[in-house]
Structures are given as C-alpha cells and as structure tokens.
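The protein record filed here:
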Amino acid sequence: MGQERRHLLEITPDELASWVERHGEPSYRLGQIMEWAYARRVVSFDEMTNLPASLRTSLAETFTLAGLREVERACSEDGATGKLLLELHDGEQIECVWMDDDGRHTFCISSQAGCALGCQFCATGAAGFGRNLTLSEILGQVTALARKCGEPHNIVFMGMGEPLLNLDAVLPALESLTAPDRFGLSPRRITVSTAGVTPGIRQLAAAPVHPNLAFSLNSAFDGRRTALMPVNARYPFADVLDACDEYGRTTGRSVTLEYVLLGGVNTSEKDARAVARIAHRLHALVNLISFNTVHGCGLHPPGPEEAELFRCGLEQRQVHVTQRYRRGRDIAAACGQLRGKHPGKEK
C-alpha cells in the first residue's frame, strides 16, 4: 500500500517551496499553487489551469486537495444564515455556519466532531464525542463556506467541540488563517470560544497568533456553573478567571464573556451583580445569548421581561453589553444547536 497523501492545506509554504525546487520547477510556481489553494479555494489540482499538466499530475500524486463532502445544506427563511453538514473521510460528520450581515460574512466553524464536555444547554455535547478535527478539516470548512458565499469577514471557533482541547490543529489553523500568503485575515477578526479550559487559555496566550478570546461563563457561581457545565469541576472557576486575566495582560485583548440566558436559572439580580464584578475585573464585554431550545434538557429561555431586567442590571453597573440575536433557529444553526441529524458512520 502506498504512503497516504498529505492534504495540501497542511503543507507549510517552506515545505511546498522545497517540493517545487526538488521537482525542478521555477520558484514562482509556489505562489501560483498557493493562490489556487488559498485565494481561489479550489478542491482539485485539475482546476489549477495555469500550471503545466505534468506539474498538476505530480501534485496529485503527492498531495490531496479534496474538499469535505457536503451531505446537506440549509438556509434560513430570511436568507441571512446557512448551515452545511459535512462528512469527513471516516464517516464522522460536522456542521459549520455562515451568517450574512449586510454583505459581511461570519463563518462559525467546528474544531471537533461532537463534544465531550456535556454542557447541559448544548445539543452538540448531548450527541457525544467523535474525535478531534485535523488541520485540513478545520480549514476545509472555511474553503467550503467561502465557495458557497464568498470571503469571510470574521471567523469564530464556536461550532462543534471545544477548540482549546484540540490545539494541535487549532494553533496551526490560526497561523494559516492569518498568514498573508494564505488566508490573510487579521487576528482581530478571529474569535476562539472556550468553556474554560485553563491550560489551553495559557497555551493560546503563549502562541504566535492572538485571536479574540470568548469565555463561556453562563453562571458566576461555582456550584451552579458546575451543574450547567461539568468542565467547571475539572478546571476550577477561579483558575479560569486567572487565566483569562493573563490572556488579557499578555495579548492586550479584552476577553468577551458569553452568557446564555436560562429562564429562572441565571437571570436574577444576584446573578447580574456577580457577572458585573467579573466583567469589571476582566474589562470584558458581556455577550448575552438567549437560550435556543434543546429538547430534553429541562431548560427554557427567559421571558422578554426577565431578559431585559438582567440586561438592565448589567448596564446599570456600567457593564458593556451586547445581545446576540437568534439567527438560524429555523434551521437548527443557532448557538448551542449544532448537531448533525444524519447518523454518519456506525459507532
């Protein structure tokens, strides 16, 4: 059996330059290949029409450029949000989302097939954990979404999985996404969301690329947070806050606190006071997210008055608050809803 071909999106420019030189090609071929792979998002070497046929054949014999297989595509009624269900080479399935805001596209991508954290309010965790995604599977989502709707303005690692439990692929993905000769995005246009994996936050702070960091808070009280998010028992809340402090000091980036509003659970005046204290400590914006129903979890969204009182409680304490609209709910593409409805491979 021949050696398995590496995906071209996992090859560094230096490695590719050496390959081009070994094959006796002029150095400018490197730029041509990179443009086809990253700027034009092709998924076949046959599409690289300004390369000699012999070079395309050699590339195809050495590497693969195959895209992820699209199983299903869904678009919201307003046309502003869409979701792709993609199948990986081993039958695992993942979902990714695009959102259109007046022509500026945000791509929400996955870092794992499923999730092992089991947050009570999240459908992805309820489906269980498959495996970590590879670098090319992460970048392949960007390629698939870009071929569908054009260039991304923002990329958020807020899809399936916990990004900081897959840093072996996520850190190289951040380098590729921000490298001028590859995807060329500013780190300020990339956000990595975490449920609170302390070692991962510190490792991200020490990495070359510093994206925005979003911490999924959801309760400022240790016991309640553990009930909602079992990861809190493994990585104690106080340590996570210290790591977020460190991230802000090291990178100069303010951390965003994501807060899913759960009716009768985390929206009291006491909750608002506690969240405000954390927001001031971290100099953080608080992004409020109305809970999107996950059947069988026993939780429900707050009523409009309950949500507004909580928001006002934060604003009265001089906290900067934004509120995420419920986009994509009609196609199960909203926050916390990502879970492939197809069975994929048998476990």
About this structure: The chain has two domains: 12-64, 69-331.
